[in-house]
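user: can you give me the structure for this one chain? tokens are fine.
assistant: on it. calling the predictor now.
[tool input]
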Amino acid sequence: MEHEEFGLAVAEHRSSIVRQWSLISGMSQANSAYELTRHGIQKGFVGSRSPVKGELMKGWCVNNTAPLWACKSALSLCLEHGWQPSSPIEWALFAYLFIRFEPVGELEEMVSRLPAGLSGVQGGREWLMLAIEDRDVNRNKKNK
């Protein structure tokens, strides 16, 4: 996958990780939204705020409008529940969000931080390389 394809895949499917969390959680829409918010606050992805309503979270998924903090929180929760990316879209989302947990790291640092179940997965390193390239290209665009 090339840089442009990577960026498009992430943009078109970013909120699907929130939907994935909702499915994995096995909770009601309201409870999974509450946990998403609680976890996001606890991890520092978002400041203190009222819990997201279940209907709002559903709207994010339907309209692909979930904010970055919610996507990062959803990925973190999915990983805690044993989820692993299996398709190219899931790998792209994983890598895009994973490097944004602590976005200062470079490739070797990010590879060393991969969850245990993913550290030896073939191709994981390449997805992280694409995500870092995407981050750097977008950072350079903003600085121009």
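assistant: here you go. Residues 79 and 129 are 20 Å apart (CA to CA). Residues 3-142 form one domain.
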